[in-house]
Specification:
Elements: H1 2-19, H2 28-39, E1 41-43, H3 60-63, E2 67-72, E3 75-83, E4 93-96, E5 109-112, E6 116-118, E7 133-136, E8 142-143, E9 157-159, E10 164-167, E11 181-183, E12 188-192, E13 202-204, E14 209-212, E15 223-225, E16 230-233, E17 248-250, E18 255-258, E19 272-274, E20 279-282, E21 298-300, E22 305-309, E23 319-321, E24 326-328, E25 330-331, H4 333-341, E26 346-348, E27 356-357, H5 361-366, E28 371-373, H6 401-408
Parallel strand pairs: 3-5, 4-6, 5-7, 7-9, 8-10, 9-11, 10-12, 11-13, 12-14, 13-15, 14-16, 15-17, 16-18, 17-19, 18-20, 19-21, 20-22, 21-23, 22-24, 23-26, 25-27, 26-28
Antiparallel strand pairs: 1-4, 2-3
Bound molecules: 2-acetamido-2-deoxy-beta-D-glucopyranose (6 copies).
């Protein structure tokens, strides 16, 4: 009797197991697409990303590394695809991106980690209308940005940095309604960058061949870098920085000219302002009250043609680079106080026409915890530096007296840069 009961129980258990729904299958089109994607890519020596991609596995969604799936109608669809491990000790992938990616029509996120993947971005990527994130960085992708990308109305982040992409940026890219983060750093893009008509937060165009004047930008922007391009023109039509949310601004190493607008110094949110190596002229506004720019703040105006006296407006910045300009007058006492208090940690004013610094600075010049470089000015006798000068400052403590005499008589016509 007990045996019969046991038998019945076992039967019941096995029936229950059999009637449990089997896990949903990966959609066959997605399965075929993954197969094609794998066929054009491979691990570089030292990477084993594809080790788990066994196409005999019944459930790729739970066994393949780099994919997640979501259930849709009657099957599983690939939801996110991350190619490569992204581990620092991994060398990444080689090969190219298969056009079959565009068959993964439920994809919301496409990531390719650093490797040496070549070829172009699939031209029909715009068919993946649910895409919110595209991040294809640190490879050797070439060709242009596919025009179809401008159909991705949910696209939030586009990061194509560190590739060999070229051509100009499709104008409608910067009007995509959801776009918040656009990173095109270190490619070979050319031409004028289009006006930004969305609530973009982060725009990084550094190290490309963009030319023309600064584009129109939204007040929402918090991070802007156009460093190391061929851009030119005045800064005063940039946008109303005074009411923007901008925290980080890098316009360095371009050909911008004209003066620095006052509102660059009045926006309370801005903590990094890098304008070095341009063709900027005029003075720094001095009407502005001293404010604390905060920890890590940096203002770099070096290697321009700026003149006039050093502004108290910068006394609240942690790292100040004003070297290689045509500044005159004395180093403001407020700077020396900030250095003493430790709120200012770097002050580079070498290669100007400054005539003095408060004697309170004598102790500071001997302190090793801050970097001060004041060499090659018109201070007599030449003031000693505290070893805080970069090699590029050269070994000369003072400017040749002949250059300083001209200046001291109020003439700036003979100043040499
Ligand atoms: C890389 O690092 C991870 C974790 O630190 C480790 O598990 C893995 O074995 C390493 N891979 C290689 C190829 O060294
Ligand atoms: C997309 O899927 C369809 C249907 O399976 C197939 O005919 C087509 O070749 C695929 N496209 C690509 C680019 O793989
Ligand atoms: C500074 O940023 C905050 C939010 O980040 C914003 O509320 C504030 O309006 C900004 N300040 C100015 C003057 O725009
Ligand atoms: C800067 O302006 C001067 C003329 O004022 C011009 O000769 C020079 O080419 C300009 N430099 C750059 C980098 O634009
Ligand atoms: C800026 O450079 C352009 C082109 O070289 C020149 O036409 C313009 O006058 C310059 N503006 C200023 C304020 O120097
Ligand atoms: C500078 O001005 C003083 C008088 O103000 C004059 O004696 C001197 O010769 C001038 N030096 C030069 C180099 O013009």
């Amino acid at each position: 009797m007990a045996q019969l009961q046991l038998l019945l129980l076992l039967l019941l258990v096995s029936l229950t197991l059999q009637t449990q729904p089997s896990p949903p299958k990966l959609n066959p089109i997605d399965f075929a697409a993954l197969f094609s994607i794998k066929s054009t890519l491979s691990d570089l020596p030292g990477s084993n990303f594809f080790a788990s991609w066994d196409f005999l596995s019944p459930h790729p969604c739970s066994t393949f590394s780099g994919i997640t799936c979501s259930f849709e109608s009657d099957s599983l669809r690939v939801d996110t695809l991350t190619l490569g491990t992204g581990l620092v000790n991994s060398s990444g992938l080689t090969g190219s991106l298969s056009n079959s990616i565009t068959n993964l029509t439920s994809l919301t996120q496409l990531v390719l980690y650093s490797g040496i993947v070549t070829g172009s971005i699939p031209s029909q990527i715009g068919e993946l209308t649910h895409l919110r994130v595209i991040s294809l960085t640190n490879n050797r992708l070439s060709g242009g940005i596919p025009i179809s990308i401008t159909m991705l109305r949910d696209l939030h982040t586009l990061d194509l940095s560190y590739n060999e992409l070229s051509g100009s940026v499709p104008p409608s890219l910067t009007s995509l309604p959801s776009l918040k983060v656009l990173v095109l750093e270190s490619n070979r893009f050319l031409g004028e960058f289009p006006a930004v008509l969305t609530q973009l937060l982060h725009l990084d165009l550094r190290n490309n061949g963009f030319s023309g004047e600064l584009m129109l930008l939204p007040l929402s922007i918090r991070y802007l870098s156009v460093s190391q391009n061929q851009m030119w023109g005045p800064l005063n039509n940039l946008f109303s920085l005074s009411s923007s949310e901008l925290v980080y601004l890098d316009l360095s190493m371009n050909h911008f000219n004209g003066t620095i607008p006052q509102y660059f110094f009045t926006n309370p949110n801005l903590s990094t302002m890098l304008l070095q190596r341009n063709n900027l002229t005029g003075g720094i506004v001095s009407l502005v009250d001293f404010r604390h720019y905060g920890e890590g703040s940096t203002v770099d105006l070096s290697h321009n043609f700026l003149s006039g006296e050093l502004s108290v407006a910068l006394a609240g910045v942690e790292n100040v680079f004003l070297n290689n300009n045509r500044f005159t007058g004395v180093v403001p006492t407020e700077y020396v106080k900030s250095l003493s208090a430790g709120s200012m940690k770097t002050l580079y004013v070498q290669h100007n026409y400054l005539t003095g610094i408060s004697t309170e600075a004598d102790g500071l010049l001997l302190s090793g915890s801050i970097s001060i470089c004041i060499s090659y000015n018109c201070m007599v006798p030449g003031v000693a530096d505290n070893g805080g000068c970069p090699v590029s400052a050269g070994g000369l403590l003072s400017r040749p007296a002949s250059q300083c005499i001209e200046f001291k008589n109020g003439s700036t016509s003979l100043l040499q840069h």
